[in-house]
């Protein structure tokens, strides 16, 4: 188990360091995102052993939200903003979230329906 | 020589980290046993820690500096997201292009409208950046906020709210507008409500889970690549 943990940490660490190196030459995306693509590619081409990494990564993904609590607590410095614009903030978040839900949901459902009707025609012929 | 003040700072720092993790753990267990999406441990931890800090008169800067190590874990957390991306590359290869174009359009519309609306109503650039980045998963949202000079705390909060709205109201709303297939529901909720929505809808079916996490990952990557372009262009024309 300890071996798996060290293997996972090293894999993520090396990808992140490579990401940092890429960021120096190509400063378009954050280093961590280059690292993420690197990690995906290494797993996909089986240069990393997915089975050894899986348990640690699943644990990390399930618990990582705790790392963002301090940033969230920072809202403490913005009571003034919330007092003045709290309603507008929540309303904008609410509206645009529903817009995105509706757009993606409806478009993909329409595409699926079209595919299904094409398949039906193919079957009836 | 290690000075005594260094030791005091170090132990105070550890105290805040342990406190943060402990509070989070309590709520995470609570949510696990009660299985309610709105009992979001991150939100509840924030709402518990704020009165605690206010009560004990701890300035936020002191707390934030002490918990800096937790913040540093943001980068490896983004890298770790490559794992679900790898898993879905294999399962859903056929409709890759359709989905990519659809999510690209969705991200484009959502970022533009959020940014314009916020700039128009609240008239603060950093808040507008934060609200534009609310549909992606937290580590990427925060990384992009820093890159685009947004406001970390507002982004963190907006992301939780977007997640809760989609997780709680997404499934009934989608059924109401006749989006009934598991694939379309999963894709929509993953795109609008990231990991929070995905975690909630994943209990419905494997197909929901697969499409939701696919959308979550692709929109995060698409947002990371295009949001600087969209936001800088809009800011250029609006300001």
Structural features, described:
- The complex is a heterodimer of chains A (125) and B (239).
- Chain A is mostly helical and 125 residues long.
- Chain A has a domain at 71-125.
- Chain A has five helices and no strands.
- Chain A has helices spanning 2-25, 31-44, 50-63, 69-73, 79-124.
- In chain A, helix 1 crosses helix 2 and helix 1 (2-25) packs across helix 3 (50-63).
- The model of chain A has no long low-confidence stretch (mean pLDDT 88).
- Chain B folds into two domains: 4-72, no CATH class; 79-238, no CATH class.
- In chain B, helix 1 (4-34) packs across helix 2, helix 6 (82-91) packs across helix 12 (206-238) and helix 7 runs antiparallel to helix 8 (125-132).
- By secondary structure, chain B is mostly helical.
- Chain B has helices spanning 4-34, 41-55, 60-66, 68-72, 74-80, 82-91, 96-121, 125-132, 138-147, 152-176, 182-201, 206-238.
- The radius of gyration of chain B is 19 Å and the shape is globular.
- Chains A and B meet through helix 1, helix 2, helix 3, helix 4 and helix 5 of A and helix 1, helix 2, helix 3, helix 5 and helix 6 of B.
Q: Extract low-pLDDT stretches of chain A.
A: none
Question: How many domains would you count in the coordinates of chain B?
Answer: 2
Uncertain segments of chain B: none
Name the overall outline of chain A.
flat
Strand count of chain A: 0
Q: Helix amount of chain B, in percent?
A: over 70%
Structural class of chain B: mainly alpha
Mean of pLDDT of chain B: 87
User: What value does the average pLDDT of chain A take?
Assistant: 88
Helix coverage percent of residues of chain A? over 70%
SSE pattern of chain A? HHHHH
Largest interface: A-B, 66 and 98 residues
Radius of gyration of chain B: 19 Å
Helix segment tally of chain A? 5
Task: Provide key terms for this protein.
heterodimer, A: 125 residues, mainly alpha, 82% helix, B: 239 residues, 2 domains, 12 helices, 0% strand, globular
């Amino acid at each position: 188990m300890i071996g798996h943990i060290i293997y996972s940490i090293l894999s993520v660490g090396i990808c992140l360091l490579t990401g940092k190196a890429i960021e120096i030459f190509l400063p378009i995306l954050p280093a961590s995102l280059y690292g993420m693509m690197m990690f995906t590619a290494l797993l996909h081409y089986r240069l990393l052993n997915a089975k050894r990494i899986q348990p640690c990564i699943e644990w990390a993904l399930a618990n990582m939200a705790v790392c963002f609590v301090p940033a969230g607590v920072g809202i403490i410095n913005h009571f003034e903003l919330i007092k003045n614009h709290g309603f507008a903030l929540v309303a904008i978040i609410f509206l645009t979230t529903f817009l995105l839900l509706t757009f993606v949901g409806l478009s993909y459902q329409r595409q699926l329906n079209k595919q299904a009707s094409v398949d039906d025609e193919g079957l009836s012929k | 020589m290690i000075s005594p003040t260094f030791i005091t700072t170090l132990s105070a720092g550890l105290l805040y980290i342990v406190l943060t993790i402990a509070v989070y753990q309590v709520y995470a267990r609570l949510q696990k046993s009660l299985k309610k999406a709105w009992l979001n441990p991150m939100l509840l931890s924030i709402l518990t820690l704020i009165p605690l800090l206010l009560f004990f008169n701890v300035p936020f800067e002191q707390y934030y500096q002490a918990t800096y190590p937790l913040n540093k874990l943001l980068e490896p957390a983004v890298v770790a997201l490559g794992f679900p991306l790898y898993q879905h590359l294999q399962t859903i290869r056929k409709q890759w292009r359709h989905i990519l174009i659809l999510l690209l359009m969705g991200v484009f519309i959502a970022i533009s409208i959020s940014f314009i609306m916020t700039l128009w109503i609240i008239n603060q650039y950093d808040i507008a950046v934060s609200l534009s980045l609310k549909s992606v998963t937290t580590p990427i949202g925060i990384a992009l906020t820093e890159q685009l000079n947004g406001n970390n705390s507002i982004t963190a909060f907006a992301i939780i709210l977007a997640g809760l709205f989609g997780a709680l109201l997404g499934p009934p709303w989608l059924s109401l507008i006749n989006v009934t297939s598991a694939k379309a529901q999963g894709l929509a909720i993953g795109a609008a409500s990231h990991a929070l929505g995905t975690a909630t809808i994943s209990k419905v079916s494997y197909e929901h889970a697969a499409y939701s996490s696919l959308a979550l990952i692709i929109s995060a990557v698409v947002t990371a690549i295009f949001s600087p372009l969209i936001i800088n262009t809009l800011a250029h024309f609006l300001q």
